[in-house]
Structures are given as structure tokens and as C-alpha cells.
Amino acid sequence: MPKSIISVERLTKTYANGFEALKGVDLEIAEGEILALLGPNGAGKTTLISIICGIVTPSGGRVLAGGHDVVRDFRETRALIGLVPQELTTDQFETVWNTVSFSRGLHGKKPNPAYIEQVLRDLSLWDKKDFMLRQLSGGMKRRVLIAKALSHEPRVLFLDEPTAGVDVNLRKDMWQVVGRLRESGVTIILTTHYIEEAEEIADRVGVIDGGRLLLVEDKVTLMKKLGAKQLILELSEPLGAIPEALSGYGLRLENEGQALVYDYDGHDQTDRIGPFLQALSAAGISFKDLSTRQNSLEDIFVSLIGERA
């Protein structure tokens, strides 16, 4: 596995009113990966990001960014990190070019017009460079926020709900932008409510709820491990009831007895499907067609959160 660029160790955060936003979070983020953090409102996603970015002070534990402590070495770590916040906070009467260039200067970087031009081109903003922000659509304004976050050439980019309120087509455009950024070597951490966003672009998925990180797992491994599958058999003849000989398989009938559904865990596929089909044949049941269906990441997410409810 590539080396970690962000290390979160035993991180806690309790606010002045006593609310525990984070409860001992441990997390390693590898250089060059895309990590999606999923969780309901109030789960702790934004608090976690805010601490890593040096905006909020932790109550306990520590965070290292590029080997530097985010509290003690604030200047060094902030130079490594770009943050795209949820809110569209920009000067509406400033031009795209000026607001992105100014953001670079705020981080103490020397002017580099060629780099700013490349960022704007990558984000399809070059033809809008002289537009005032108030002239842009919401989706374009969100791209400007990404350009500002990239203006100082960070190695890590945090996207807090990057496509909230953005239409489906623009959301897919944004996914392509994120993919290109990763190809250029930028590590990307995004929080999202859109499960398909994590399913589409993330390498790993973290699920956070109630201030605790429930799991962090490779996306494909997670879906294999937790994604229940269904085997759907379209029967040659409809069944009125499931035969006693098949009672141990937890089967159910659908479509007025014309379909038989078998639920099984993904990792049971090889050692249970064979015996099940043999038992089906022994019971004199034949089928015309067979298909499988696998749970989505959304089903997995809902089941994980439900277990803690």
C-alpha cells in the first residue's frame, strides 16, 4: 500500500456545550487515493475534515499531514491541503481570474499565471476567466471553489459535499474533474450524501456515524464482504408453495409463484450455490432463466447505520 499522507490517531472533539462530535477516530489516508466519507448529518464528517485542515482544534489525539502535526506545524500542513467547503462563499463582484490568483497569494505562493491558466482550463473555466462570479451558475461557482482550493498546488484536496445542489449532468462532469486530479497525483477526500458518488469514483469508502468511524474499506472488497446477493430463478411451472425439502435455504416466491428467490452472502457463492441447485433438481423443480442481483453501496450503508440505530 502507498505511504500515508494523512494519519489520524485517536482523534476526539468535544464542543463547549458537551457535544462529542468525534470519539476516538483512527484513519490512514494513502497518497494518491480517493476516499469517500459517508454518513448522515451530524455524523462528524465536517468536524473531521475541519480538524485535518486546521480550522478546528481537536480535544484529543493528533493528525499528521505529510508527517507534520496539523496543530504544531500549521503553516506547513496548510500548504499541503486544499479545502472546498460546502458553502458558496465568494466575492460576487470579483472575476474568476482574480479570485483564484488572490487565493494563491493568500497561501504565500508567488504568482504563476501559467499554473492558474492550467487549473482554469482543467475545470472548464478558462472561457469564464473574466466573468464576475455573480454572472456564473451555481455549478460554475462550485468549480471556482475547486480552482481556489487548487491555486496553491496542494497535495491533498478535501471536498465537503462537492456536488450538493448540482444537477446530475454537472455532477458527472465533477466526477471527471476529480478523476483527472487524482491522475495528476492529488489525494482526494470527499464527503457526500450521494451514495452513487462514492460508488462511481472512490477507491475506498469510510462510514462515519455518531462520531465514530464504523469502517474504512476498499470499495470492491466492501461490496463483496457486505453486499448480499440474490439468485432469481424464473420457474418453468409456477409453485404454490416452497417444498419442505428446500425449507433450509430461506427461499421465497415472487411474481405469483413464477419466480423463486434465494438470498445469500457474496462470499458464500461457491460453496452454497451448487448444493442449492442440486436440491432444486432433486425436488423436481426446473427453471427457464436464472439471474443474480447484488446489493448496492446504498443498501450496505443503510444496513450499517441501521445496526447502530
Automatic annotation (TrEMBL):
One Pfam family of this chain: ABC_tran
Q: What SMART domains would the database entry show? A: AAA
Secretion signal span: none
- Molecular functions (GO terms): ATP binding; ATP hydrolysis activity
**Residue span(s) of domain ABC transporter:** 6-235
Keyword ATP-binding present in the record's keywords: the answer is yes
Q: What is this protein called?
A: ABC-2 type transport system ATP-binding protein
The record's comment on protein family reads: Belongs to the ABC transporter superfamily.
Q: Which UniProt keywords apply?
A: ATP-binding, Nucleotide-binding, Transport
The highest taxon in the source lineage is Bacteria
Q: Enumerate the PROSITE patterns for this protein.
A: ABC_TRANSPORTER_1, ABC_TRANSPORTER_2
